[in-house]
Amino acid sequence: MRSLHMAKMINELAVTLAAVTLIAAGANAQDLPGSGKSVRIAKPTWDTGWFQTEIYRRALQELGFEVAPPVMLHNDQFYDAVGQGEVDLWVSGWFPLHESYTDAFLEGAEPIGYVTKYGALQGYLVDKKTADENGITGLSDFSKKDIRSLFDSDGDGKAELVGCPPEWACRDKIVLHLDEWGLGDHIEPTETGYSATMDAAIEKYRNGQPILFYSWTPSWVVGVLTPGEDAVWIQTPEASKQATIADIDGCVDNPCQIGWDANDIRAVANTAFLNANPAVRTLLERMTVPLGDILAQNARLHAGEDTPEHIERHAAQWVEENREIFAMWIRTAIDAASDQAD
């Protein structure tokens, strides 16, 4: 009860400070660009994107929009829905990874702004102890029977890789990688719920057993298994030039042939909705959330602060800690709407 009371106090403080900001800017509630309008926002199935979603939802509310709690959608569901105008936006587009969905939304929606620019890495990792003891530096090492047997707990002759669920874009990329590199007979990716499977892998690691897993940044996984300390990014065979990235902490080599392009995390919104709401377009073009802040929140999430109330509290705290720049984004968005009206 005490924690709920505290969350309520924080939310009330956020509303109060938002009102002060808008009054100081000379805006009355009925003058806000979102007055009398609603926004349908979505969130992804991966929990590491929920914090950013809530921060953006609060910004839309401060513009006067009515914003219901976000609806959770799989990638293909979202991109089809946003292109058709059935939802308005989300802030969980990963590009270039999500370019595979372009046909679903190209005519009716568009990526806009950068939640985090060039900060979203992806790749394959092995626990550092096993990698060091066995000289594992790349995915191609799993073509060796003695290596893959270390990661084969069910005796089927294949190393077990914590992979992605079928509805995530990374699942198809992993399958493509293993096929292209001739490793499909040597590595078996899981396709069940990622968080639960990764939790089981972490437990294996803590019991001294080898683990091979896919992960990304920002993610709670790389907070629990720190690259360079607990795990290492391993290289992929015949990586393209675009997938070779310098100065990746915890990679076995520098530059690192990580095999995945660095991604930008972007908002994706229905174009007709943006054209009708210049304040939202301007807001999405300017808002960002630092990678370090996302990682810090993800650590709190994995430690058990994972309910909707927790996420709302994390976002409210972030907004107040960044109130000056947050207020500037709101003011700029209001001005954009006013300029178009003139």
Give an overview of the whole structure.
Helix 2 (50-62) crosses helix 13 and helix 11 (278-286) runs antiparallel to helix 14. The strands form five sheets. This protein has a five-stranded mixed β-sheet, with helices on both faces. The chain has a three-stranded antiparallel β-sheet with strand order 5-14-6. Mean pLDDT is 89; it is low at 1-26. The protein is an alpha/beta fold. It has helices spanning 2-24, 50-62, 75-84, 102-105, 128-134, 145-148, 169-180, 194-206, 221-224, 271-276, 278-286, 291-302, 308-321, 323-341, and strands at residues 38-39, 42-43, 66-67, 71-72, 89-95, 109-120, 122-127, 159-162, 187-189, 212-216, 231-234, 244-245, 256-257, 263-270. The protein has two domains: 2-118 and 263-341, 3-Layer(aba) Sandwich (D-Maltodextrin-Binding Protein, domain 2); 122-257, Glycine betaine-binding periplasmic protein, domain 2 (D-Maltodextrin-Binding Protein, domain 2).
What order do the helices and strands come in, and which of them pair?
Blueprint: H1 2-24, E1 38-39, E2 42-43, H2 50-62, E3 66-67, E4 71-72, H3 75-84, E5 89-95, H4 102-105, E6 109-120, E7 122-127, H5 128-134, H6 145-148, E8 159-162, H7 169-180, E9 187-189, H8 194-206, E10 212-216, H9 221-224, E11 231-234, E12 244-245, E13 256-257, E14 263-270, H10 271-276, H11 278-286, H12 291-302, H13 308-321, H14 323-341
